[in-house]
Each structure stands twice: as structure tokens, then as C-alpha cells.
Amino acid sequence: LIVGENFAGLHIIDLKENKEIKFIRITSAAIFDIKVFENVIFVATGDGEVILVNKNDFSLLNKIKLSEKSARAIAICQQKEEFAVGYSDNHIRIFDLKDHTLKQTISAHDNSVFTIVYSPDGKYLLSGGRDAHIKVWDVPDNYKLFNDIVAHMYTINHITYRPDGKYFLTSSMDKSIKVWDAGKFKLLKVIDKSRHAGHGTSVNKLYWSKYKEQVASCSDDKTISIWEIAFGSS
After folding, report:
1. Is the model's pLDDT at 63 over the cut of 80?
2. CB–CB of 33/52 below 8 Å?
3. How confident is the model at residue 234 (pLDDT cuts 50, 70, 90)?
4. Distances from the Cα of 32 to the Cαs of 45, 74, 154, 214, in angstroms?
């Protein structure tokens, strides 16, 4: 388990032994996102750095700083050997997964980009943020804007796909979780407090498990909720 701590660095936890085996002091800034791909740990920080750490020996591989604003979210596309970073300067930057060079800069949103995710097939990159829009970027077509959806009332905090890529979820500061058809980008369901005894404040993070279609959501209301989402044959 890799835990990012504000103003310190990374804690590496051995879950079998139930103890910390390593602390890596890589930044004094807040840590907003952590992703792991093969032997690399990718870390997005509040001072605009993207820090790459070797997963095997925890040595520093690279520090990339292209903005004075926060690096908020990281997404990795194995198919194109690229990774994307969403920033609080409203931009998404696309990097080469092997040599970490900048390949493209996208002026993405009217405000801070809080969440980005590639579709499981690598065809689309979805982004969301403070402007409450979902932007859909066509990856094979040089990240051309494919769709722009006014999805929530307030900030979109997180987007996640079902593992098979047929559906995705969004969560927002407007206290709701929304279920979307990933092929048609059509809204299917709104999960909120009034209709489903949902969260009472901002919904910050989602996890869609392969186990019984269950979704975990966490919120500023200090609760984690588990939802079982079922789809009819139609």
C-alpha cells in the first residue's frame, strides 16, 4: 500500500506484515494523486510537480515541473504508451510513458482539472473539474474534443470506469454520484441523498469493484458507502 501524506512524501506499507517498510521524502507539497504502472510510481503534487519513483528500490527517477499550479490527477494509457496529467492551470499535458517527455498540451477546461481517466480500451480520455463539465477526448485523433457534457451542478471530483468499460461513474461536490453509458455518453442514474440515502456532502472518490458490481464512494461527510449497481437486460 502506497500512502501519500501532505507536506512529507510517501509511506510504503506491507499489508501482510501490517507495518511501514519505507518512507520516501520526495516533496514538501501536498500529494493529490498516485498511480502505479509496472515498476514506476507516479505522484502528482500541489506545487505542480510530477514525481516518478522506482517501485523496486524507491529511488527517484524523474521530477517534471511544467506548471506553477497543482498537478491534480494522473492517468496512464498502456495502449499508446502515454500518461496524462490534469493541472489546476486548466490544462491536460500528455507525456511519453517511457522517456517522460512532453508530447502535447491541451487547453481543457475553464477551471481546474480535478480528475482524468482513460477508457479501458484506450480510445478516450475523460476529464472533469471545477467547471462541472465532462470533456471526452478522442485519443487516436490526437486528443481532439469528442464530447462536452454539462454533467453536474458543481465540481466533478472523480471519474471511474466499470472494469469492462461499458459504463462509468462521476462524483461531485453537488453530493451526487451519476451512472453513465460509456458508449453513448448518456446519463442512466443519479444516486443522491434524497432518493437513495446517499452522501450529505461532497462525494470525493469512487471505486468500481469487479465483485458483484459493487461501488465504494467516500465523502466529506466522513462516510464510505457501498452500492450494488445492477443493469437490466435492456
Report:
1. yes
2. no
3. low
4. 6, 9, 19, 25
pTM of the predicted model as reported, rounded to 2 decimal places: 0.93
The order of strands in the sheet holding 203-208 is 203-208, 214-219, 224-228
What per-residue confidence (pLDDT) applies to 153?
Answer: 93
Q: What's the longest Cα–Cα distance across the chain?
A: 52
CA angle 153, 84, 76 (to 5 degrees): 105
Report the phi/psi class of residue 19: left, alpha or beta, with left for phi > 0 and alpha for psi in -120 to 50. beta
Rounded average pLDDT over 75-93: 97
Mean pLDDT of the chain: 94
